[in-house]
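Our preliminary data section would be incomplete without showing what the modeling component actually yields. Below, a chain of 566 amino acids is followed by its predicted structure, encoded as tokens that our downstream tools consume directly.
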Amino acid sequence: MLAPLYHAADEPNHADAVMRIEGGRGWSPSTHATVTLEGVGAISVSPFGKPPSTLSLFSGPIAASQAPSRNSRPTWQDLKPPPGVTRGSQQQTTQHPPGYYYYEGLILRAGGAAGWRWDIAVSTMRLLSALLIVWLPLLSWATAWRISGSRLAGIAASVFPLAVPELTHVGATVNNDNLVTLAGAATLLGVTCAMRGDRSKLTALWTGLWTVIALWAKAFGLVLVPLVIAVYAGPWLQEWWSQHRPRRSRPADSVRRKRSWLPDRRTGVLLGLSGGIAIALGCWWYVISEVRYGSSRPPVPGFPPGRQIGHHIWTFLTYLTRAVLGRWWGDFGWSEVHLPWRLDVAATIIVGLIAILGWVIFRGRRLALVLLLWPTLAAYFVVVAQASSNYFHTHYVSGLSGRYLFVGFTGIAALVGVGCAALPAKVARWTPAALLIGAIGMQVESAHLSVDHWWRPVGGTLRQAWASFSAWSTWPVGVLWAGFSLLGLFTVIALIALIMVGVRGTGLEVVMPQVDDRGDAPISTVEQPTEEPAAAETPATDQATASGPDGDAVSTSPVGSAPKPR
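Predicted structure:
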């Protein structure tokens, strides 16, 4: 809400691409797609620039006197480019799959958004983006609870998304990262259920379809495909390895080995519903691009090369760490407003220590917890690889943004929740409230920096900042007051509820969800065949133990082992 329209990374291009779909113009190849003239006109009447250079970024502060009245703001279809402009710039967003843009464009088309005021159309796009991100606390809660069996872990994880101002900033602007973030979160929930023993067809179908949506949204959805396949093929691969490693043969070994070269029927069905659907329905865009352009991402002629840093390798390495980390926690607009670097580092250290504690305490689930980090780490490696290739060929730096890692955001949230549950009970019960207080602090600091940069005149007052903000706002002042009042009310209610969690000690017990009787063993706890003669074999019990991937004794029941209840 505090970010001016079009003061978010690539928002003018994203909004124009949505209105392409709304107007029935389809999805042109990125090799020759340009921003529409209406899109250019929207930039010129927005607070993006300042007369006379309305098409050049003006960082702020933005004056109230330059804001046109709401009644005089043109509709989208009536927008005109500035005099002398006859063609839009390169439309870079068509290098991406069109999923996000069809989601918003078709909804706006149903409402006839071309006839709306341009700022209402763009603000509605922002609301539709926020509708995607609003589910992250719920998905974080479900993922943490499913991986740990601790309700407190779920509560703490659900609070964590509020502590990352970059997420709330990107989530409230027009950006295709929002759809891949939601789809990645939903996919991670399905993967988590599968790792904890839920081998049902419905869960596999859920996982596969959300992976498809992630692939339709952005190329970073590709990092989910190997994770989905590995989790659903894991039990069969473990069994295959146990049967083919060198050991004394038994009479039934030859038959079992012949059958184990292919997955059993149930594993094949689950792989088809998850990874098979993802590849068949989600990868067609990338296959076509690879065939047509020789790359999974279509080229964009004239794409800005980024920032030139020459042969300074140390500067480049700094960008790979500081730029990505800073843009994960809080880097707003066109890198106009930044959270203090020390705050980013302190928050990272705290989150890292909590996550490591959860990994240490929850011994039987270490592999599953590590796999929750796969989308984030894989996306980071992709970003580093692309940036490194560009730098060593051109000595320019580009494509480094923390929001690209949000495809695995709920995995980090779940690790934080598990770490909070691993603390001593007297401390753990207060961690959700502490997280919310920390989140409020992060958001207040972000709001303070944003208001000072964009809205408060140099040497001005908060009253003047409010005048500028309300003058440029899409919505009337009464709506703004109602929105801020509801935000304050819900924040107080949430804080009171989490304080009551601390007072009552809610959720300190560890209760694993029940798994369908048809579920197989979790990926990290597949029972190993015994080495004893057949005559000495005894039926396996539900609480038999085996050596897990970390060398720890873990349960082979569908729910795995759990820490001692607090």
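The beta strands are 307-308, 331-332, 337-338, 396-397, 545-547, 553-555. The longest helix spans residues 477-504. Preliminary results of this kind motivate Aim 1 of the renewal.
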